[in-house]
């Protein structure tokens, strides 16, 4: 089977209010699939339900535009991209983490290492009455530092490593993983992606 093409076009900025906001703007302006907005620092980063996402320099903040072939009546399938993105993030992290670390997924948008949140995902879609336009996948990964004084435990990638990694290196690995799982999704292989996610899903609290 011929592999679908996905080429990434990276827009790298030093400081930005929100990578998702700029990516959504570019998507409305017909930016091509695979457009990536990457910022060294965000001043108004956000997570699910408008929560603040702490965005100091040294961590990874990026948003990727995808234009999957979905019809308006199939938009419920967009939730699959939360799973797809989480598995891509998980694979990326395990490319760097020692095997002793335990990686888990918490629905709908968290990736944890040893029970502590290390990454969050924010999906935002665009469509009108006639057609689905695309989805922005916003991803934040704690690399150099993790926020403190929160109601939950947090972690940063470099605290587990002998050789610290940079946001650019992690982004390169992330895009490779995201492309791999997006191609699988295009080939109707989502069940295999979901199974990988379920095998590492954090148990629901009673």
Q: Any overview of this molecule?
A:
About 25% of the residues lie in helices and about 25% in strands. It is built from four helices and seven strands. It has a seven-stranded mixed beta sheet, sandwiched between helices. The radius of gyration is 16 Å and the shape is globular. Strand 6 and strand 7 form a beta hairpin. The chain has about 210 residues and is an alpha+beta fold. Helix 2 (about 80-95) packs across helix 4 (about 190-200).
The largest pleated sheet is described as: 7 strands, mixed
Q: What's the number of helices?
A: 4
Shape: globular
Distance between the termini: 44 Å
Strand order of the largest sheet: 1-2-3-7-6-5-4
The unreliable regions are none
- Helix/strand-derived class? alpha+beta
Q: Share of helix among residues? A: 25-40%
Q: What is the helix/strand order?
A: EHEEHEEEEHH
Mean pLDDT: 89
The proportion of strand residues reads 25-35%
Strand tally is: 7
Radius of gyration: 16 Å
